[in-house]
Amino acid sequence: MSWFKKRIYPEYWQAYEAHFKQATNNHINSVRFVVFDTETTGLDIKEDRILSIGNVAILNNSIHVIDQLECYLKQDLFKAETVKIHGLLKEGSLKKISEEEAIILFLAHIKDAVLVAHHAAFDVAIINKALRRLGLPKLKNKVLDTGVLFQKTKLDTSKMHFSLDSLSERFNIPQHDRHTASGDAYITALLFLKIIPILKQSNKNLDLKDLLRSNQRIGLL
């Protein structure tokens, strides 16, 4: 068996994994949610790259602005045609870090939080692709999609997919800093906090398991 060697991952991944050894509390008010968004060079998970990551935490039904992360990545892949969407130039004045440095910061911030995103499957997949480039496993966190959570409210059964713009308008959420990772994360956090009370109206004992329960596959692609 000399050919078999257990893979040793870097310390930052081991520190991230260690958070999942503790028991999970399913009471919504006790769960730390981290709402996140990524701005990318495009929608091709295999070829496109992350330009920026924005995180903000929610605990006990409140957004904790102090518990947040914002980082910009060096653009090894540059697509000029997408600048009009996200506004991020290849150089510019923003401090940019490597993909590995961004992943280290991201993992250190999220820990074992329940991740929340709008159209979460893409954001999780693009992070997982970055992890794969670093020789690391996929994210271990539970994931919620605000689009799917809105479907659970049954306020609108006319379609299956709802854009962040349409739901923001529906719930009168100002779209400040739209199409920036931090701005979209904050808008999504407000949306999440609008949806939860509606779900509680039909289930006073609503907990994390109820939020996670879905026939759809969300997140860990």
UniProtKB/TrEMBL annotation:
Keywords carried by this UniProt record: Exonuclease, Hydrolase, Nuclease
Gene Ontology BP terms: DNA replication
A GO-annotated cellular component: cytosol
Residues annotated as domain Exonuclease: 32-201
A Pfam family recorded for this sequence: RNase_T
Gene3D superfamilies: Ribonuclease H-like superfamily/Ribonuclease H
Gene Ontology molecular function: any one: DNA-directed DNA polymerase activity
SMART domains hit by this protein: EXOIII
Keyword Nuclease: yes
InterPro entries: DnaQ, Ribonucl_H, RNaseH-like_sf, RNaseH_sf
SUPFAM superfamilies for this protein: Ribonuclease H-like
Top-level taxon of origin: Bacteria
This protein's name: DNA polymerase III subunit epsilon
Lineage, top ranks: Bacteria, Pseudomonadati, Bacteroidota, Flavobacteriia, Flavobacteriales
Record gene name: dnaQ
